[in-house]
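Table 4 source record.
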Amino acid sequence: QVQLVESGGGLVQAGGSLRLNCAASGVSFSFNAMAWYRQAPGKQRELVATITSGGRTNYADSVKGRFTISRVNAKNMVALQMNSLKPDDTAVYYCNAEHFTTIYWGQGTQVTVSS
């Protein structure tokens, strides 16, 4: 059974940094794209950043220049380095991975940015 487990969330002051990590278990293949999503209270889940198996990245406009997504294909791991955090970045962050038509989700990790 494939599981994605996030870690690295927490409480940080505005302007600070956090690094989120996501590790997959029960996987015998390499994911196609991996991504991070987030969901703030009362809002829909939104895409934060994606990375393909070839390393191509894409970011939401709101995080461009502040967040960096990276992955280790051999380990099916993906990370999100978040710098210059803002209170608006407060949300539950979810790891996402795709293998052809199958999509997997982690359980989420809370990120809270205080002003």
